[in-house]
Amino acid sequence: MSNELDGIIQVDTDELKGMVNDSASPILIDVREIDEYEESHIPGVPLIPMQTIPAHLEKLDKSKSYVFICRSGARSQNVALYLKNNGFNDVRNYYGGMLSWDGDRQDGLEWMVENTQELYR
């Protein structure tokens, strides 16, 4: 069940599992470093490393919903707060991060977003 931290909805593992293959769900974005993502990530979830988020800010659609994922939930919380402070209304954090994820995993660099328009396939 979702709760809230600093005005950001916290998504738990069961909720995230329901979102992974649902095209109507929020856009899921992994914000870890490339090497962390390559080691293990949720299949189909794109990577936008945290430090590159400001460069993507103007390209992200403020009318869309987003859930951010990192290793423990701290970096993704900071990204959600940053976007919220920049006019994004529907941003969420995966509480517990990949340390809590017990679903399917994939290794390798599956999908690193260089052009955020790639998110809208």
Description of the molecule:
Helix content is 28%, strand content 16%. It has 121 residues and is α/β, with parallel strands linked by helices. The chain has a single domain (3-61, 87-119), classed as Oxidized Rhodanese, domain 1. It has a five-stranded mixed sheet with strand order 1-2-5-4-3. The longest helix is centred in the middle third of the chain and has 12 residues, at 74-85. It is globular. The termini are far apart. 30% of the residues are buried. The mean pLDDT is 91.
Q: Which fold does the CATH topology refer to? A: Oxidized Rhodanese, domain 1
Helix and strand element order: EEHEHHEHEH
Number of DSSP helices?
5
- Number of structural domains: 1
CATH architecture: 3-Layer(aba) Sandwich
Biggest beta sheet summary: 5 strands, mixed
The N- to C-terminal Cα distance equals: 29 Å
Task: Please give the number of β-strands.
Answer: 5
Q: Can you tell me the CATH class?
A: Alpha Beta
Strand content: 15-25%
Tell me the layout of helices and strands.
Blueprint: E1 3-5, E2 8-11, H1 13-20, E3 27-30, H2 34-39, H3 53-56, E4 66-69, H4 74-85, E5 91-94, H5 97-100
Parallel strand pairs: 2-5, 3-4, 4-5
Antiparallel strand pairs: 1-2
